[in-house]
Amino acid sequence: KDIEVNLGNQGLAVSLDKDTGLLKSIGVVRPDGITMIKVNQTYMWYAGMSGNNSQEEFRASGAYIFRPDGAHAQPVAAAANVTIVQGPLVAEIHQEWTPWVSQVIRAYKEELTLEMEWLVGPIPVKDGIGKEIVSRVIWPDISTNGTFYTDANGREMLKRVKNYRPTWQLHNAEPVAGNYYPVNSRLVVSGGPDFQAALMNDRSQGGTSLDDGHMELMLHRRLLHDDAFGVGEPLNETAFGEGLVARGKLYLLHSDFANDDCDFGCLHRSLGEKVMLEPVISFTPTTKPAHAWR
Amino acid sequence: PRLERLKEAMGVLQHHDAVSGTAKQHVTNDYSERLSQGVTESFQMVVEAYSKLNAVEGGDEGPLEATAMPVFCPLLNVSSCPLTEASEAFTVTTYNPLARPRSFPVRVPVPSGAGYKVTDDQGHAIVSQLVPVPDAVLRVPGRNSTATLELVFLAEDIPPLGFLQFHVQKTANLPFQKEQMSQIFRPQRGL
After folding, report:
1. Does the N terminus or the C terminus of chain B have fewer Cβ atoms within 10 A?
2. Nearest chain B Cα to A105, which residue?
3. Residue of A245, A283, A287 lying closest to B84 (CB–CB)
4. How far apart are CA A61 and CA A228, in angstroms?
5. Residues of B in contact with A231 (CB under 8 A)
6. Cβ separation of A279 and B22 shorter than 8 Å?
7. Does A246 touch chain B (CB under 8 A)?
8. How far apart are alpha carbons A88 and B153 in whole angstroms?
9. Is A83 on the interface with B (CB under 8 A)?
């Protein structure tokens, strides 16, 4: 059977594929049982187009330009090593695809939000290829008609349709980049009244939905060519002599997590505020034992 | 003037190069430095505000432990915080900037080899869990931390625009530590 992880009788249950260690389904644990929803998630990378920008076709992917070489991303790895951590407050799944791509899937007790804390970098470029790393969530049985929604600064949701612009006839020469949009806080897909899903981020990223049920956000990039838009150097940040390491969080919501008190819109709106205005944590050394401190 | 430093930094960083990272590396580094200085100075104001609140709470005793000043750990995202890694006991203050109550799972980087008793300001023991820091985080270049675990506990219903405080006490009590440690499984793929 698959690897099933849940927090007893509250919150979310998560199942992983036993052969790949990748996410396979999630579900809400309710007193009358668990309804699991199929969903896959993994990390992919686009090869950054290299070029001397002498002509349009030689335009390189760089700080201003996202221009993948080819129309398909490749998986970072086919499987991930898994460590499962279980306790009274939080269940975690530590997944490691490669030494430079890993994540922690978290489900807190009584919380109906799947947290995915990603860690990407240093991105290897010894093969001379710049790489643009994305997290891709796929709801396999859902048809979304090439339509998805992205927010504008956490407020208005804008409808996006693949290879289409509402105000002019688009001839899309860039099958991937031409369908990427800014995602300030959330990317939403809808497959009819019974299926909506939101992928929420903790910082603005580029995102898209290139196929039915797909949700994709770009997390980190390391490129080897300038794109001739004025920066005059490639987007190749190094720290400690290697590529920069970035860490952040994505949150996955499904309309099944909604209830009478809080519908799907309420779920992602309230989570959006919580993510943007997290509590400020500070620590103070003390010599007093708890009762004296109190 | 200290808040001005942060305002000026955020004003300069409205420029599209700062927002989107389309600048030369040394310019990007300069943007980061300005923001970091601004945040650091504004945090000093937060510290002063807390000490005033504590002074009020301390009543005629004056500020509680006037010498001990709150510390912020900006590297919590890679589980690093020198104060919580080195202290036998410390207090955790969680301030909620939302205008409604909210609960929040607090994650505190700590070294292994001990248990940690968490008490709220009513004197109640709080359920907590020790969670291992993922290997990939331990390997992050430049991470300089002794923490291999995170102490997780729930700050429940932090008041709107208010805060909750907790006391954390390191303990060598093994049964307590065993009870607190998460269960860990490493399933072999394919089995």
Report:
1. N
2. B134
3. A283
4. 10
5. 22-24
6. no
7. no
8. 10
9. yes
Please, are residues A134 and A216 in contact by the beta-carbon 8 Å criterion? yes
Beta strands in chain B (DSSP E): 89-96, 102-110, 115-120, 128-132, 149-158, 162-171, 183-185
Residue A242 has pLDDT above 90, yes or no: no
Q: What angle do CA A179, A181, A183 make, to 5 degrees?
A: 145
Judge contact between A207 and A183, C-beta under 8 A: yes
- Amino acid at position A117, single letter: E
Rounded to the nearest 5°, which phi and psi values hold at A36? -85, 140
- Across the interface, of B65, B104, B134, the residue whose CB is closest to A104 is B134
Chain segment A274-288, per-residue pLDDT in tens: 999 999 999 999 999
In a structure prediction context, what are the per-residue pLDDT tens digits for chain B, which is 191 residues long?
Answer: 889 999 999 999 999 999 888 999 999 999 999 999 999 999 999 888 888 876 555 444 444 455 688 999 999 999 999 999 999 999 999 999 999 999 999 999 999 999 999 999 999 999 999 999 999 999 999 899 999 999 999 999 999 999 999 999 999 998 999 999 999 999 876 65
Rounded CA-CA distance B161/A30 in Å is: 33
- Which residues on chain A are in Cβ contact (under 8 Å) with B187? 3, 18, 21, 82, 84
Euclidean distance between CA atoms A211 and A191, whole angstroms: 12
CA distances from A12 to A203, A263, B80, B87 (A): 24, 17, 28, 35
Contact in structure between A82 and A183 (CB atoms under 8 Å): no
Contact B185 A84 (CB under 8 A): yes
Cβ separation B189–A94 shorter than 8 A? no
- Only one residue has tokens 């049985």, namely A141
For residues A92 and A88, what is the distance between their CA atoms, to the nearest angstrom? 11
Cα dihedral sign for A20, A22, A24, A25? positive
The whole-angstrom separation of Cα B133 and Cα B111 is 10
Nearest CA to B152 out of A136, A107, A166, A210 is that of A107
**Distance between A206 CA and the closest CA of chain B, angstroms:** 11
Q: How close does chain A come to B1, measured CA to CA in Å?
A: 22
A181: Cα separation from own chain's centroid: 14
Binary contact (A290, B127; C-beta < 8 A): no
pLDDT in tens, B41-50: 999 998 888 8
* Residue of A139, A242, A136 whose CA lies nearest to A197: A139
3-state SS, residue A174: coil
Q: Is A126 near chain B, with CB under 8 Å? A: no
CB count in 10 Å sphere of residue A153: 9
CB nearest A277 (choices: B77, B98, B127):
B98
Angle, vertex CA A140, rays to CA A138 and CA A143, nearest 5: 100
